[in-house]
Amino acid sequence: QIYLWIIDSGCSKRMTGNRALLTNFVEKFLKTVHFGNNDFAVIDGYGDVVIGSMTIKKDYYVEGLGHNLFSIGQFCDKGLEVSFRKSTCFVRNEDGVDFLTGDRSSNLYTIALNKVASNSLTCLLAKASSSQSWLWHQRLSHLNFATINNLVKTNLVEGLPKMKFEKDHLCSACEQGKIHREHHKCKTAFASNKPLYLLHMDLCGPMRIKSINGKLYVLVVVDDYSWYTWRVRTDNGTEFKNKTLAKFFAEIMKSSTTNVETSNVEIPLNEEEVFHESSESFQGEYSSSSLNDDVHQSIDYDVPFAPVARIEAIRLFLGYATHKDFIVFQMDVKTMFFNGILKEEVYIGQPLVFVNKQYPDHVYALDKALYGLKQAPRAWYDVLSQFLIDIDFQKGSIDTTLFIKKG
Question: Which residues form the GAG-pre-integrase domain (predicted)?
């Protein structure tokens, strides 16, 4: 026998007027149903529709209803999609799999359930209760509900009801089973009670791409108490090196002795090397003056103390001048290191191709700096800064390379 079911968009629930189709019938007055012609009927109860191995749960019985009706709203509530074409209709899941297929006849879309395969309508129209869902979840060794629904569709488990199983709460046994033991013991918590008591530092680099200022390393310092963060960009990443300890080892290496035979080959000195005259009186005077010099700790005497304009200050100056529409002039001083006046005694040897034949053993005493001297940048800075101050410029207190003249 063929049972046709009409796909009805105006029907709120599945219902039938054929009492013989319902099994496990529960006779109970529920409510009334209104039709399009303003007539109404009474819902006298509900039951299950069993066709072969397929079961449709809780189908309403309306006495006098001449058709079997499927509700599109109930399909959509189950996460299904109902599509209509010119001569057919489809009921699909979210993956696009067709569960039901109907035909169009006399302007109505109907589905013949006896033509539907027994495993194609599993758990679509009926939903398992919470107790049934968790009972089968435990019976199947805490199998996840998506796999249980796949077992229902493929009819692989005997006795498994053809319903839709849903997870409405968490399973404590599953949660405990997924917990894993920590691989390492917890470290003893060390709490700082004031700022700068405990700092966390991380040095990253060298980076493949330099920053705007040519930096290759990034140092991040985090205060454990306040979680204030400092970010320092550097070019060589030596912030963690102990400078005092490095100098200490350098002194040890200087004091060590090695047995090396001296060479008899004379090596000429060029004009860039600084030395004193070979007379005994001059040697004594120079040595005594050197011994009387004060040596201060934490000062690197190998570095020439010449202020250099920072790229940040130059950018700030150019940006401000552009904002105010100022005219910026740039001037380069040629051979500027030749103009620096030396404050200390500096001597150089005679160039090899310009040796005075009358005084071949004499040296030159410098009045001004030369290129190659460590004092040259500082000497030129002193001359230039004094000249600018004499013409009413004021030197910057923070950036000593900045001179300002107020009109």
Answer: 107-178
